[in-house]
Amino acid sequence: MLDYDGVLTPFSDYPKAAKPSRETLDLLKKLAGDPRNDVVIVSGRDKKTLDEWFGYLCIGLVAEHGVWIKEEKKDWVITRPLNTGWKTKVHSILEGYVDRVPGSFIEEKEYSLAWHYRKADPELASVKAKELTDNLTSLTASIDLQVLQGSKVIEVRNLGVNKGSAATRFYSKEAYDYVMAVGDDRTDEDMFKALPKTACTIKVGMQPSHARYNLRNYKEIQKLLEAIATAGK
Ligand SMILES: [Mg+2]
Q1: Using alpha carbons only, what angle is made at residue 106 by residues 100 and 108, rounded to the nearest 5 degrees?
Q2: Which of 28, 65, 111, 135 has a Cα-to-Cα distance from 59 of 20 to 30 A?
Q3: How far is the CA of 153 from the centre of ligand 1 (A)?
Q4: Which domains does the chain show, CATH number per domain?
Q5: Separation of CA 155 and ligand 1 centre (Å)
Q6: Which residue from 210, 197, 218 is spatially nearest to 4, judged by alpha carbons?
Q7: pTM of the entire structure?
Q8: Contact 76, 70 (CB under 8 A)
Q9: Helix (H, G, I), strand (E, B) or coil at 75
Q10: Catalytic residues
């Protein structure tokens, strides 16, 4: 189970720019081509983007941090019905922050809204990010929403779906003898926590985590995955 941004690709200033490289796609193909493996990309991205990038591969996909699930060669299914009535109000709050923090922008997905500030002045952005988190947390306490602080992004989404519930669905499909999960973000902690203690969970980056292991960056992950892909051949 592999997160995408920061794991299979270096972190990019614009989400759209972080397209998978030829090497990454070949690597996934190699991993998925081994009948002993099942590969799942567990991402926060929308399903359209994941389809464009990975739709042709024989792998499982998770979009919007667990809202949508696509098993190998099947259609997308929503994991549980969600309402989106909150989006208009939250969107207008985020717009206020886009105006005040140059370089920041809103990303809209079906069941979440994200405010990105990768390209903004780091000092101003971190002050405003804190303020926005407080604003949103008090607003969303009464609604069924969750505010998530990721890497240079604040995301608001419906409560109760996360990468953990999605990972569990894939994990319980079969009696797997080895499970590996890799992620770099706070949203990946849900996945690390949901998997059994015996799973090989890897955090990319050296921050404390529920994962059992840490690797420094996506390059080290690439090396590890290459080694797995070529092992036993
Ligand atoms: Mg990530």
Answers
A1: 155
A2: 111
A3: 11
A4: 15-80+162-230 (3.40.50.1000), 87-158 (3.30.70.1020)
A5: 13
A6: 218
A7: 0.82
A8: yes
A9: coil
A10: 3
